[in-house]
Amino acid sequence: LAGTSLTGEARFAEVVTADTEESATQATDVRGQLELANGRFQLREIEMKTPQGVLQGELAADVAAEPLTYSLDLHGDALSTGVLLGIGDLRGLGTSTFKLQAAGEGADPARIAGGGSLTVGGGELPDHPALAQVEQLLGNVTLIGTGYEAFPVTFDIRSHRVNVAPCTLRAGPVALSLSGWVDFDGPLEMELTVLTPREGLKIKEIPAE
Questions:
Q1: Which three-class secondary structure state does DSSP give residue 1?
Q2: pTM, rounded to two decimals
Q3: What is the pLDDT of residues 130-155, one digit of tens each?
Q4: Is the CB of residue 122 less than 8 Å from the CB of residue 78?
Q5: From CA 25, how far away is CA 16, in angstroms rounded?
Q6: Other beta carbons within 10 Å of 61
Q7: Whole-angstrom Cα distance, residue 131 to residue 176?
Q8: Which 8-state DSSP code applies to residue 136?
Q9: For the purposes of burial, counting CB atoms within 10 Å of the CB of 153, is it exposed (0-12), middle (13-18) or buried (19 or more)?
Q10: 78, 14, 74: which is closest to 43 by C-alpha?
Q11: What percent of the chain is helix, strand and coil (3-state, nearest 5)?
Q12: Other C-beta atoms within 10 Å of 74: how many?
C-alpha cells in the first residue's frame, strides 16, 4: 500500500458497523472523495444516509502504520433526536444538530478517544415510559406534551465509554438534569435530577420491592 496511489469518487450502497447484530449501525448511499497515497487513506466530503438522518464528514487513516491509526469528523443537521438517543422516533421531539471528532488505532474500540456535542431543538416532551414514571412519582406534575427549550449536550469518548456531561432540559416550571455514561457493550449509568416548585407537590410513596 505504501507505493499505491488512487484518487476518485467512492460510493457504497450500504455500510454496517457492529460487534453484534443488535448493536448494528447502518448507513446507505455512502459517497465521498477518495485519495490513497503514501500509505495514507482519506475520504473527504463524505455524505451518508442513516436512520438518524444525513451525516457528513471526513475519514483519514494511516494504513501503513502498525497498528493502523485513523481519525473521524462527523456532523449532521435536522437529525432525529429519538433515534440518536436510542428511544425511537418519538413524536414531539425537536430535531438535533450533531458533531463528533474522534481518533483511534487498531481494531480495539477501547482505543477510540474524542468528543462532540448534540444540540436538541425545542419541542414537546414525548409520551415515554420514563417521563410517565416521573409524573406518577411527583403526583401533580405534567411533563408529557409540555413544551421544552432547546438545550445542548456535550460528551467525550474514552475507555470504551461515552461520558455525558451534566445537561439540563427545561419544560415549563420543571427542569430535568441528566448526566452519566454509556458503555460500548451496552451497560449504562445515568443520573436524573428533577427540579420543580414545591407548591402543590405531592410525592407518591415508592412501593417496596
A1: coil
A2: 0.78
A3: 888 888 877 777 889 999 999 999 99
A4: no
A5: 6
A6: 19
A7: 10
A8: H
A9: buried
A10: 74
A11: 10, 55, 35
A12: 19
